[in-house]
Structures are given as structure tokens and as C-alpha cells.
Design goal:
Blueprint lengths: L1 H29 L7 H11 L52 E9 L8 E11 L4 E13 L8 E3 L4 E10 L3 E10 L13 E13 L2 E12 L2 H5 L6 E11 L9 E14 L8 E14 L2 E10 L9 E9 L1
Antiparallel strand pairs: 1-2, 1-13, 2-3, 3-4, 3-5, 5-6, 6-7, 7-8, 8-9, 9-10, 10-11, 11-12, 12-13
Length: 323
């Protein structure tokens, strides 16, 4: 009897040990016990690590743990929403979520500033540094237009913008982030650039029903410095964005994977006393599709709905690589 009890006891201990090891392995795989790497360690792992591992190492973040959780932990790509929609970016829509990718874009604006047309090409890079912090860089390689009053076209580099972004909270169905964009006057005033400005903003992303995603944000554009006001006519401007889209295909259905059609709306209002406080409303029907090997094609057309309008229409196309 005692021998049987001893054997049973040893068996229970071994079973508990195996369960503990299995639980530990599951925790490591699922990210239930995040690894604290320090700021630089988390940044290195977020930029170069396998952030798309299966099972996902992503974990929710709460606003209540804003100061204590996520800053020294590597970012991992979030899981799809409960409706099945992935967290992805669209043309004409606020971000709201973190990414690790680069996208090259080209846009053409018909009758820009009521003085000829505008061609612009740029590159945007998203680099997460932790679960809470990401940096977005917008690099306008070329801008070509006549400006608001010129008689000939000028082609130059645009105003480089860098935006530190912070994740406030993130669950499976909702992400909320804030950021401050710092626009630097690296372009030419002949193109309507050379503007120094800061733009604080709030963004969200939500998926609560099947492939439907709703996202949006609110921003305050605040130029500063004499050149920004006198030469370019930049105005303090409040803007808000709201977009909705629906995903029709699975990720692997290339070249039409993650096919989403969306419509964005952006309203902006000048808030200073340096001119008329007109309201501008722009609608942006858009699409995005996975071509394969994490290459994506994006497109959209900005269509002003109010007068005076900044242009007649502006199509934009982008080629993106997730890495």
C-alpha cells in the first residue's frame, strides 16, 4: 500500500513537472510571459526579429499599464481582429496601429492650388521600437509644381517629417495610439514647402464584425517660424479622418490577398485669424491587395467635396513591402 502511494506520489510530481514545463513552453510561445529586453534590446528585436512568428507572441496592452508595460518589450505583429480583419494601412485613412514596413508612393494632383498640376513621389518607413513606441518617417523625394502663384514648374525635395507614435492600448478588436509629427523645412518655398510644424494627433482602429474595419483620427497642424507663415501661407488647421473598409479575401489568395475596398473622409478647418476659416472635405475611395511574398499594391483617389478645393482630384498609388 505504502509502495503504491509512493509510486502515485512520484507520478503526480512527474506529471506536475511535465505540466509546468508545457505551461512554460506555451507561455514563451504565446507571449504570456514577455521578455524584458531593455530599450535598445527591444528596439533591435522589434526591427530585426521574427515578429510574425506562429503562434503569435502578441499580447494585449491596457491603458492602465501605460507606464509599466510594453516599453522594454519587443513588438510583435498583432493577431487579426475577432472578425478576421488584419491590421493594415490604407491610403486616405489614419493608421491607429503599428507596422514594420516601407511604402513608396506617387501622386498626381490636377489643378493643384489652382495653378497647374502637382507630381509628388515619396517613401514612408514604419519602424517599431517596442510594444509601446514606433517611429514613422515620411521622405518626400520629389515634389514638382508651380507653387500657388508661380509661372513655371519647380522640382525639389519636399519637407521631411518624422513622427514618434505611442500605443495607448491594444486589444484584439481595438487599437488606440497617439503621436506627434515633426515637419522640417527641408523643401523649397517655391513648391509651397519649407514649413516647420508640429502635428499632435490621436488615431484608432477597430474590427468588431467580420471583415469590416473602422478607423479614424484627429489632428492639429501647428506651423511655427516666420518663413512658415510669410512665405508659404501655412495655417493652424484642425483635421479629422474617418474611414471604413471591408476585407473580401484571405491573405494567401494572391495576387488578390487581403483584398480590401475602403472609403475615407477627411475634414479640415483653419483655426487662426490669418485668413478665411473655410472648411475642406475630401473623400478617398481606395483599395489594397497582397500581391505575394509580403508585397502589396495600394491605390486611392482624393476627391474634394467643398469649395474652394486644394485640387480637382488626386490619385495616389503605392507599392509596399512588409519586412
Amino acid at each position: 500500500m505504502r509502495r503504491s502511494v509512493r509510486i502515485l506520489g512520484v507520478g503526480i510530481v512527474l506529471a506536475c513537472g511535465m505540466v509546468g514545463l508545457a505551461a512554460r513552453a506555451w507561455a514563451e510561445e504565446s507571449g504570456a510571459e514577455p521578455e524584458h529586453l531593455g530599450f535598445f534590446g527591444a528596439a533591435a528585436e522589434s526591427i530585426t526579429g521574427d515578429v510574425y512568428a506562429e503562434p503569435s507572441r502578441w499580447r494585449p496592452l491596457t491603458l492602465g499599464t501605460f507606464f509599466s508595460e510594453g516599453w522594454d518589450e519587443a513588438w510583435a505583429s498583432p493577431v487579426n481582429g475577432s472578425g478576421g480583419a488584419p491590421r493594415q494601412g490604407w491610403i486616405g485613412a489614419s493608421d491607429g496601429v503599428f507596422y514594420r514596413l516601407g511604402i513608396g508612393t506617387y501622386s498626381y494632383a490636377e489643378h493643384w492650388a489652382d495653378n497647374g498640376d502637382q507630381n509628388a513621389g515619396g517613401f514612408t518607413l514604419y519602424t517599431p521600437l517596442s510594444r509601446r513606441l514606433e517611429v514613422r518617417q515620411d521622405i518626400p523625394f520629389v515634389v514638382s509644381n508651380k507653387g500657388s502663384s508661380g509661372n513655371s514648374y519647380h522640382t525639389d525635395f519636399g519637407d521631411y517629417t518624422i513622427t514618434p507614435r505611442i500605443m495607448l492600448s491594444e486589444s484584439q478588436n481595438l487599437s488606440q495610439s497617439i503621436g506627434v509629427a515633426f515637419r522640417t523645412p527641408t523643401g523649397s518655398d517655391l513648391n509651397g514647402n519649407q514649413i516647420a510644424a508640429i502635428t499632435p494627433g490621436y488615431e484608432f482602429w477597430a474590427n468588431a464584425w467580420r471583415g469590416m474595419v473602422v478607423r479614424g483620427g484627429a489632428f492639429m497642424f501647428a506651423p511655427y517660424g516666420h518663413n512658415s507663415f510669410a512665405d508659404s501661407g501655412a495655417r493652424n488647421t484642425f483635421s479629422a479622418n474617418l474611414a471604413a473598409g471591408y476585407y473580401f479575401t484571405e491573405h494567401d489568395a494572391t495576387p488578390f490577398g487581403d483584398l480590401v475596398f475602403s472609403v475615407g473622409s477627411t475634414v479640415s478647418q483653419a483655426t487662426d485669424d490669418r485668413g478665411p476659416n473655410t472648411t475642406t472635405l475630401i473623400f478617398t475611395p481606395a483599395f489594397r491587395t497582397h500581391l505575394g511574398r509580403n508585397w502589396y499594391l495600394l491605390g486611392g483617389v482624393d476627391i474634394p467635396a467643398t469649395e474652394p478645393s486644394p485640387y480637382d482630384y488626386q490619385p495616389t498609388v503605392g507599392l509596399m513591402k512588409v519586412f
